[in-house]
Design a protein that fits this description.
The complex is a heterotrimer of chains A (325), B (583) and C (320).
Chain A (H helix, E strand, L loop, with lengths): L1 H33 L9 H6 L4 H11 L6 H13 L5 E2 L4 E2 H36 L4 H15 L2 H15 L16 H6 L1 H27 L2 H8 L4 H30 L1 H9 L4 H10 L3 H29 L7
Helix pairs in contact in A: 1-14, 5-6, 5-9, 5-11, 6-9, 7-9, 7-12, 9-11, 9-12, 10-11, 11-14, 12-13, 13-14
Chain B lengths: L1 H10 L2 H4 L24 E6 L15 H7 L7 E3 L5 E3 L2 E7 L5 E6 L13 H12 L13 E4 L2 E4 L1 E6 L2 E5 L7 H6 L6 H7 L3 H6 L1 H4 L10 E7 L3 E6 L16 E6 L3 H9 L5 E4 L1 H8 L4 E16 L12 H9 L3 H8 L4 E3 L27 H10 L4 E2 L5 E2 L9 E7 L3 H15 L4 E7 L1 H9 L1 E2 L16 E2 L5 E7 L9 H4 L13 H10 L7 H18 L2 E14 L2 E2 L15 E2 L1
Parallel strand pairs in B: 1-12, 18-19, 18-22
Antiparallel strand pairs in B: 2-3, 4-5, 5-9, 6-7, 8-9, 10-11, 11-12, 13-23, 14-22, 14-23, 15-23, 16-17, 20-21, 24-25
Helix pairs in contact in B: 1-3, 11-13, 17-18
Chain C lengths: L1 H12 L5 H13 L2 H23 L19 E8 L4 E8 L15 H37 L1 H16 L2 H12 L3 H11 L2 H15 L2 H8 L4 H37 L10 H10 L5 H29 L6
Antiparallel strand pairs in C: 1-2
The chains are: A mainly alpha (325), B alpha+beta (583), C mainly alpha (320).
Chain lengths: 325, 583, 320
C-alpha cells in the first residue's frame, strides 16, 4: 500500500521535472539566441589588422555557427538531436558537448562535494555546541562569527586568501593544478583554499540553522522526559534532540545545493582557475556557444530536481508519518 | 599566417591585450645552439585572455588558436626582432618574377607528415585550392588570397611545379603579398581528402582536432588540451630544425590559462609558472625580484582617438584644422607617463616604430613639445569661429553659435588603461571649455551602436563603412580604441584610412591618401625605395591630416624565471624559442 | 508547531486594534537584540552618508592623474615611472594625506568620495531590486493563496520553474545579452529573485485565509479586494519586512559579483565596480579592493543582523 502511492508520486514528480526542464531549456535557448551580439564580434580587431573586409569574415564565422538559419529551425533541430541523445558540438571549444561535460564535471563536483562536507560537518558540530552552551561567551562568539561568514562576499574572500596564503606565505599554489591525481593528498591540499572560499558561507549558515533547530527541540517535553529518565546528556543531545533537528537541516542543505552549484561555485572556479562546469558555461555564454550553455543549464537543473526528489523520498523513510499527494 | 596573427594579437587589440597577457612566440632556424645544452624541464606560459577555439586552424578566426597550433606546425618563414626573414619550411627565400605577378616557393625536402610520407608542394597547393578557396569550408580569411580584377574578386592561382616547388600567380601586382605567403601552413592532403566536401565532418575530424598529423613540422607535438585550463605539447625529437642541435630543450611546453591577470602574475611571482606578461604597475616589483627577469619590448600596437567626421558627429571635426587643434590640446607624454607609466611612446602616425618602414622625417608631432599648447589650440579654434573670448581675455571653445560644446567619447569597457586615457582626455578638453561625456560600453555595443553605420532611411545592413552618407545609430564624436598596423605590410591599413576602406568608420576621406595607398600596392612599389618614399609621404600626410589622434605606441613587459636562457629581447622575441633552455 | 502559529496569529490580529502599540511592542522586543540595534544604526548611518555625503565629499568622477594611487592616511608606498631614455625607474615615496583620507585609485579619484557615492548606488540597487522582487512575490503569493484552484496551481508551477532556474546563471545571461546598465541589472535581479517571497507569502496567507477575522470579514460581505488589501496583506507585512531585510544583502552581493566578473555598469561607481577595479591593482594599491570589500561586508552584516532581529521580534517563539 505504502509503495503504491510512492511509485505514483515518483512518476508524477519525474514527469513534472521533465516539463520544468523543457521550460528552462526553451527559455535558455531563446535568451542565448535573441541577443544582439555575434560570435564574430571579438574577431573584429584581428580582421582589421589583416587589412580585410570584415563582412566576408563575419559571414564565414556566422555560417560556421549556423546563425544563417532561422531560430525556430535551429530550436527544432536542437530538440530533435537532443531526443536522440545528441547534445551537439561546441563551437567555442571544438569538441562534442557531452565530451566537454564529461571532462569538466569532476572539477565542479569535487569542489562542491568537499565544500558541502566541510561546511556540514564543522557547521553542524559548532551549531550543536552553540545550542547546548546557549548564552555563553563561546555561543556569542560563534554566532557573531557565523554572521560574518554569511556576509563575506566569497569572491573577495578568495582573492584575499590567495594574496595572503599563496603569494605572501607561499603555502599553496596560486592556481588549481589539474594534473594532480583525483584521490591524492596533493589534490586535497590544492583544494583547500577553494573549499574554504566556497564553504565559509555555507558553514556559517549551517551553524545558524543547526543552532536554532537544536534550540527548538531542546525545549520540547520529550527532552525533559528523557533527562528525567536519567539518560546521560550526550545521549539526550545526540539521539533525541539532534535526530529531531536533522530533518529541517537536511532540507536546507539540499536546498542550498542548487544555488551554490551555479553561484558561489562559479565565482570560486574563476578566482582559483578551476576549469569546472561553471567556468565552461560562462565562457560559453561569452562565446555565444548555445549548445553548451543550454546543456549545462539543463544538466544543472536536472541535478537540482533530482536531489529535491531524492530528499523528499528520503523523508518518507526518516519520518514515516510524511505522505505526499 | 600564424605569425601575422601574432602581430595582430598584440597590435590591433593592444589596449585589450594589456590586460590579457597573450603573447605569441614565433620561431627561427639556423642559430647554432651552444654545445652542451641538456633537454630538461617544463616551460609554463601563463595567459589570461581566454582559450583557443579550435586546433583545426583553417576554421579559426581568433589569434589564440593559431598560436596554439604554431607550436606543432611551422609556417614557411618567420621574422626575427629586426624583421629579417628566418626561413622555416622554405628551403630558400620566395622568388618573385620581375613583373611582380609570379611567386615561386621551394620547400625543404626533409619535411614529413606523421605517417612518414613527405610534405610536398602538392599538399600546399591542395590546401589552398581545395580547402582555403573552397565554397564548402568557410575559411574566414579568404580575402588574403583574393584580388580585384575588373571589379570582381578572384582567387590567386597556385600551381605545382615539382615535389618541392610550387608557384602562385596573381593578376594584379601587390608587393606585400609575399608576407601572406610566408605565413602559409599546409594540411595533409592524404587525410584532408577523406573529408573533402563535408564541412561538418571536416570540423570534427579527429586527426585535425588532435593535431596527429604534424610529423616533424614543429618543435613540439600535441599532447593534451584541457579546455579553459591548459594546452600541453611535448618535445618533438624529430623536429627538422632540431636534428643538428638537439632542440628544442624543454620536455614540455604548457600554456596555462588564468581567470584574472592578478592571479596570473601572482603565479609568476610564486614561481608556479615560467613566463607571463607583466602589467605596467607591477613591473617595478618584478624587476626587483631576484628570481625574475623582465624584458621591456616594443610592440606594433597603438591607441587612437577617432574623430567622427560623419554627419552625426560634431560638425567641426570635419575640418582638418579643428582636428589638429584638438590633438594639440592633448598631452601625449601625460598619457605615456602618467597612465602607461612610461611603457609607451607618443605616436604621431600609423606606422609603428618597430616597422622597417618607420620614419620620423617631416612628421608633424601633435601633442608633444611645441605642438602641445592648449592656448594656441584655443586660439586656432577661436579663429575658426569655434569660441568666445571671455571677460578675462581667455578663450572658451564653443560651437559655431557660441554655445557650450558637449561631445561624446566612447570607449570599450574592460580595458583599464583605455578608460584612464578617456578620463585624461576629458580633463584636457575641459580646460579648453569643452565638456566630454564618457560612454563606457561593452564591445558588442560599441560595434553595433557606434562603429557600424548605414545610410539613414535606407534598407542597408549596417556595416563598418557604408559610404560617406552613412551614420551610426548613436551619436558620437570620439572613439578611443586600439589599432594595429602590420609592421611589414603597412598597406593593409588602407582599410582604416582610405575613403572606401572597410573599417573607415570615422568617415575620413582624402584623395591624396587614397592615391598613396593605391601606389603602395602598385607595380612601382615593387621597388623598395619607391615604397619607402610612398610610406614616408603617407606617414607625413596622416600625421598632418589627423584622421584620428594617434596617441601612443605600447611597450610590453615580459617576465621570465631567471633560469631561462637563450632569449633575445625584442618585438618578435619568441622567434627562436625552440632554442631556449633552462640553465 | 500549531501552537506557535496561534500565538503569532494573535499578535497579528492585534494589528488592527493598535498599530502603534504593537509597533512599540515589537520595537521593545528587538531593542533587546544588541546586534540588531547595531545593524539598524549602521544602516541609518549609511543611508545618511548616501544622502548627505556627496555634498561634503569631492566629485567622485574628478580624475587627477598627478595624484593617482595615493594610499590612505597613515600608509606610505613607493611609486615608480619607467624612463625609456635612460632605462631607469624614477621612484617616489608617497604618503597618505588628509586631502584623500582613504587614498585614491588609479585615476586619482578620491576613494572616500567613491565609497560614499558607492553607498548610494549599492543601497539603491539593494532597495529597488528587493522592492521589485517583494512586490511581484507578494502579488503572486497572495493571489495564489486567495484565488486557489487552477490559478494557484499554475502560479506555483511557474514559481517552481523560476526557482529551479540557476539564479546566477540566468542573471549573467540576461545582463550579458541586454548590456550592463544599472537599471537593467536592478530589473534583472528583481525579476528573477521573487520566488522565495511568493512561496512564503502564499503559505502565510493560506493559514490566514482560514482564520476567524478573515472569515468574518467575508461573511459580512467584504469584497475580495477589500479582504486582500485590508486583511491579508497587512497581516503578512511583518513577514514581508523580514524577507525584504534579509534579501537586500543578497541583492547587493549579486550586483557586486556581477561587477566582479566584468558585467557591472561601468559608468556608475558601485562598490562592486570599485572592487573590480581594485582587483587589477591588488599588489600596487591594495586599498582600492579592500575598502569597498569591507564596506560590502559591514553593510551585508548590518542587514543580516537587523533582519535576524526583526524575525525574532515578530516571532515570539524564536530564540534570540
Amino acid at each position: 500500500m505504502r509503495k503504491g502511492w510512492l511509485r505514483d508520486y515518483i512518476l508524477k514528480r519525474l514527469l513534472y521535472s521533465l516539463i520544468i526542464a523543457w521550460g528552462i531549456l526553451t527559455v535558455t535557448f531563446i535568451l542565448v539566441r535573441v541577443g544582439p551580439s555575434s560570435p564574430a564580434d571579438k574577431y573584429l580587431a584581428n580582421i582589421a589588422a589583416r587589412g580585410q573586409d570584415p563582412s566576408q569574415v563575419i559571414a564565414a564565422i556566422e555560417a560556421r555557427y549556423g546563425l544563417d538559419k532561422p531560430v525556430l529551425q535551429q530550436y527544432g533541430e536542437y530538440i530533435f538531436n537532443l531526443l536522440r541523445g545528441n547534445w551537439g558540438w561546441s563551437l567555442s571549444t571544438s569538441m562534442p558537448v557531452i565530451e566537454l561535460i564529461k571532462h569538466h564535471w569532476i572539477y565542479s563536483f569535487q569542489l562542491i562535494l568537499l565544500s558541502s562536507l566541510f561546511a556540514a560537518i564543522i557547521g553542524i558540530l559548532i551549531g550543536i555546541y552553540s545550542a547546548v552552551k546557549q548564552y555563553t561567551k563561546a555561543d556569542y562568539a560563534f554566532t557573531f562569527l557565523s554572521f560574518i561568514g554569511i556576509s563575506i562576499p566569497n569572491f573577495w574572500l578568495g582573492v584575499m586568501l590567495i594574496l595572503v596564503f599563496s603569494v605572501k606565505l607561499g603555502l599553496f599554489k596560486t592556481y588549481y593544478d589539474t594534473t594532480l591525481p583525483l584521490f591524492s593528498l596533493a589534490n586535497l591540499k590544492a583544494l583547500t583554499l577553494p573549499v574554504i572560499t566556497l564553504g565559509t558561507g555555507m558553514l556559517a549558515a549551517y551553524v545558524r540553522y543547526t543552532r536554532s533547530a537544536m534550540l527548538d527541540n531542546l525545549r520540547k517535553p520529550f527532552v525533559t522526559t528523557a533527562r528525567a529518565k536519567g539518560l546521560p546528556e550526550h545521549i539526550v543531545i545526540g539521539k533525541h534532540v539532534f535526530r529531531n533537528a536533522l530533518l529541517p537541516l537536511v532540507t536546507i542543505i539540499m536546498f542550498d545545493l542548487g544555488s551554490i552549484v551555479f553561484g558561489g561555485a562559479y565565482l570560486t572556479e574563476i578566482v582559483f582557475g578551476i576549469p569546472g562546469l561553471g567556468q565552461v558555461s560562462f565562457n560559453a555564454i561569452f562565446a555565444n556557444d548555445y549548445p553548451v550553455v543550454v546543456a549545462i543549464t539543463l544538466i544543472g537543473t536536472l541535478v537540482v530536481l533530482l536531489v529535491n526528489l531524492v530528499t523528499d523520498i528520503a523523508y518518507t523513510y526518516l519520518d514515516p508519518r510524511i505522505r505526499y499527494e | 599566417m600564424k605569425k601575422k596573427a601574432a602581430i595582430i594579437a598584440c597590435a590591433a587589440l593592444a589596449v585589450i591585450c594589456l590586460v590579457s597577457g597573450g603573447v605569441y612566440l614565433a620561431r627561427t632556424a639556423g642559430v647554432k645552439a651552444p654545445g652542451e645544452i641538456k633537454v630538461k624541464g617544463i616551460f609554463i606560459e601563463g595567459q589570461s585572455g581566454g582559450d583557443a577555439e579550435t586546433l583545426n586552424w583553417i576554421l579559426a578566426a581568433d589569434a589564440t588558436s593559431f598560436s596554439y597550433v604554431g607550436h606543432t606546425l611551422d609556417s614557411l618563414a618567420t621574422y626575427d626582432n629586426d624583421f629579417n626573414i628566418q626561413l622555416r619550411c622554405l628551403a630558400k627565400d620566395i622568388e618573385v618574377s620581375p613583373d611582380g605577378l609570379v611567386y615561386t616557393l621551394t620547400i625543404r625536402d626533409d619535411l614529413r607528415w606523421s605517417n612518414g610520407s613527405p610534405v610536398t608542394a602538392e599538399d600546399y597547393v591542395y590546401t589552398l585550392k581545395n580547402l582555403m578557396f573552397s565554397d564548402w569550408l568557410n575559411y574566414p580569411y579568404k580575402g588574403d588570397w583574393q584580388e580585384e580584377v575588373n571589379g570582381e574578386k578572384v582567387f590567386v592561382t597556385p600551381e605545382v611545379v615539382n615535389e618541392t616547388t610550387f608557384t602562385i600567380t596573381r593578376k594584379t601586382v601587390y608587393p606585400e603579398f609575399v608576407y601572406t605567403l610566408y605565413d602559409l601552413t599546409p594540411y595533409p592532403k592524404y587525410i584532408a581528402q577523406k573529408y573533402e566536401g563535408d564541412a561538418e565532418a571536416f570540423m570534427r575530424a579527429p586527426e585535425f582536432n588532435n593535431l596527429s598529423y604534424t610529423g616533424n613540422l614543429g618543435p613540439y607535438r600535441f599532447k593534451e588540451w584541457n579546455r579553459n585550463d591548459r594546452f600541453v605539447v611535448e618535445r618533438n625529437p624529430d623536429y627538422y630544425l632540431g636534428k643538428d642541435v638537439g632542440a628544442p630543450y624543454f620536455e614540455q611546453y604548457i600554456i596555462k590559462l588564468f581567470g584574472t591577470s592578478a592571479t596570473r602574475q601572482a603565479a609568476l611571482e610564486a614561481g608556479d609558472i615560467t613566463y607571463t606578461s607583466i602589467e605596467p604597475e607591477q613591473v617595478i616589483k618584478f624587476k626587483g625580484l631576484r628570481h625574475i627577469k623582465v624584458y621591456t619590448v616594443p610592440t606594433s600596437g597603438y591607441t587612437i582617438l577617432a574623430y567622427n567626421q560623419r554627419a552625426n558627429g560634431w560638425e567641426g571635426l570635419k575640418h582638418k584644422e579643428v582636428r589638429q587643434a584638438l590633438s594639440m590640446a592633448i598631452n601625449k607624454y601625460g598619457i605615456t607617463q602618467n597612465i602607461l607609466l612610461g611603457f609607451a611612446e607618443p605616436a604621431f602616425s600609423f606606422i609603428p616604430k618597430v616597422s622597417p618602414w618607420y620614419t620620423e622625417e617631416g612628421i608633424v608631432k601633435y601633442g608633444v613639445d611645441a605642438l602641445y599648447d592648449k592656448q594656441k589650440a584655443a586660439e586656432i579654434l577661436y579663429q575658426l569661429g569655434y569660441g568666445v573670448r571671455q571677460a578675462d581675455g581667455s578663450i572658451k571653445v564653443t560651437d559655431k553659435d557660441g554655445k557650450l560644446l558637449q561631445l561624446v567619447l566612447v570607449v570599450n569597457v574592460g580595458s583599464k588603461p583605455a578608460e584612464d586615457m578617456a578620463f585624461f582626455i576629458r580633463k584636457e578638453l575641459l580646460s579648453l571649455g569643452i565638456e566630454t561625456e564618457i560612454k563606457l560600453v561593452p564591445w558588442p555595443t560599441l560595434l553595433r551602436g557606434y562603429v557600424m553605420n548605414a545610410v539613414p532611411g535606407s534598407k542597408q545592413e549596417p556595416a563598418y563603412n557604408n559610404g560617406p552618407e552613412a551614420v551610426s545609430q548613436e551619436r558620437w564624436d570620439f572613439i578611443l580604441m586600439g589599432f594595429g598596423t602590420d609592421p611589414l605590410a603597412p598597406s593593409g591599413s588602407h582599410v582604416f584610412f582610405t575613403t572606401d576602406g572597410g573599417l573607415n568608420f570615422m568617415g575620413f576621406s582624402n584623395p591624396k591618401v587614397d592615391e598613396l595607398f593605391a601606389r603602395a600596392k602598385s607595380k612601382e612599389a615593387l621597388d623598395k625605395t619607391v615604397r619607402q618614399q610612398v610610406y614616408a609621404q603617407l606617414s607625413r600626410l596622416l600625421s598632418e591630416e589627423q584622421p584620428v589622434n594617434f596617441l601612443a605606441f605600447h611597450r610590453a613587459n615580459r617576465g621570465f624565471q631567471k633560469n631561462v636562457m637563450g632569449i633575445e629581447p625584442g618585438v618578435n622575441m619568441g622567434y627562436n624559442y625552440h632554442l631556449w633552455y633552462f640553465e | 508547531m500549531n501552537e506557535r502559529k496561534e500565538t503569532a496569529g494573535k499578535d497579528r490580529a492585534a494589528f488592527h486594534g493598535g498599530g502603534f502599540r504593537l509597533a512599540s511592542y515589537y520595537w521593545q522586543r528587538m531593542a533587546r537584540n544588541r546586534l540588531a540595534i547595531f545593524g539598524l544604526a549602521f544602516i541609518i548611518f549609511l543611508a545618511l552618508v548616501a544622502i548627505a555625503g556627496p555634498f561634503f565629499t569631492p566629485d567622485p568622477t574628478e580624475v587627477d592623474f598627478e595624484a593617482k594611487n595615493m594610499p590612505p592616511v597613515g600608509f606610505t608606498i613607493t611609486q615608480s615611472v619607467y624612463d625609456i631614455k635612460t632605462d631607469q625607474f624614477i621612484t617616489t615615496r608617497v604618503s597618505g594625506t588628509w586631502k584623500h583620507p582613504l587614498g585614491t585609485d588609479r585615476k586619482g579619484r578620491d576613494m572616500l568620495a567613491m565609497i560614499v557615492s558607492g553607498a548610494r548606488v549599492s543601497l539603491q540597487v539593494g532597495l529597488l531590486a528587493t522592492g521589485i522582487a517583494i512586490i511581484i512575490g507578494t502579488i503572486i503569493g497572495v493571489m495564489s493563496a486567495y484565488l486557489g484552484g487552477w490559478i494557484d496551481n499554475a502560479l506555483m508551477r511557474f514559481t517552481d520553474v523560476m526557482m529551479t532556474f540557476p539564479f546566477f546563471l540566468l542573471l549573467v545571461l540576461i545582463v550579458f545579452i541586454f548590456g550592463p546598465s544599472l537599471a537593467f541589472i536592478v530589473l534583472a535581479i528583481g525579476l528573477t529573485g521573487w520566488t522565495g517571497t511568493a512561496r512564503l507569502v502564499r503559505s502565510e496567507s493560506l493559514s490566514l485565509r482560514t482564520r476567524e477575522f478573515v472569515m468574518a470579514a467575508k461573511a459580512l460581505g467584504a469584497s475580495d479586494g477589500r479582504v486582500v488589501f485590508r486583511h491579508l496583506i497587512p497581516n503578512v507585512i511583518s513577514l514581508i519586512i523580514v524577507i525584504a531585510t534579509l534579501s537586500i544583502p543578497g541583492v547587493i552581493l549579486a550586483e557586486a559579483a556581477l561587477s566582479f566578473i566584468g558585467l557591472g555598469d561601468p559608468t556608475v561607481p558601485s562598490w562592486g565596480i570599485i572592487l573590480e577595479e581594485g582587483q587589477h591593482s591588488l599588489t600596487t594599491a591594495w586599498w582600492v579592493a579592500v575598502e569597498p570589500g569591507i564596506m560590502l561586508l559591514l553593510t551585508v552584516l548590518a542587514f543580516n543582523f537587523l533582519g535576524d532581529g526583526l524575525r525574532d521580534a515578530f516571532d515570539p517563539k524564536s530564540n534570540v
